[in-house]
Write a structure and sequence with these properties.
The protein has 97 residues and is α/β, with parallel strands linked by helices. The chain has helices at residues 20-32, 83-86; strands at residues 16-18, 39-48, 53-61, 70-74, 77-81, 92-94. It has a 4-stranded mixed beta sheet with strand order 3-2-5-4. A two-stranded parallel ribbon has the order 1-6. The longest helix has 13 residues, at 20-32. It is globular, with a radius of gyration of 13 Å. 15% of the residues are buried.
Length: 97
Amino acid sequence: MIEGKRARLYEAGPMLTITELAKEKLAGFAAQSEDDSDLVLRVVIVGRNADNFQYDLQLIPSAEAPDDDVVVEIDDVTVSIAAKSAVHMNGATLDFK
C-alpha cells in the first residue's frame, strides 16, 4: 500500500498501465533472473527527444529500490518509479513490441 504524500499522486487512478503482453514478458524476465529475491520493475526517465521520453527499465531486488522512489502496485506488478520521473509517468502505458 502507498502511504503519505506518495498516495496523493494516485487519487485520480493509476498513473501507469501495463499491457498483458508486457506483464507476460516481465514475468518471463523475472523467471530467468538468477536473483531469488522479490523483484520490482524500476522505471527512470533518462532522456527526451522531440516527441517522447527515453526510459531505463530494470528488474531489481525490491530492497535495492531507492527510498525516494514512488512505488505502486499495478495488477500484481510492483513498479518503483524514480521520484523525478514519476511526475511525467501519469497516463503512460508499458508495452512490448
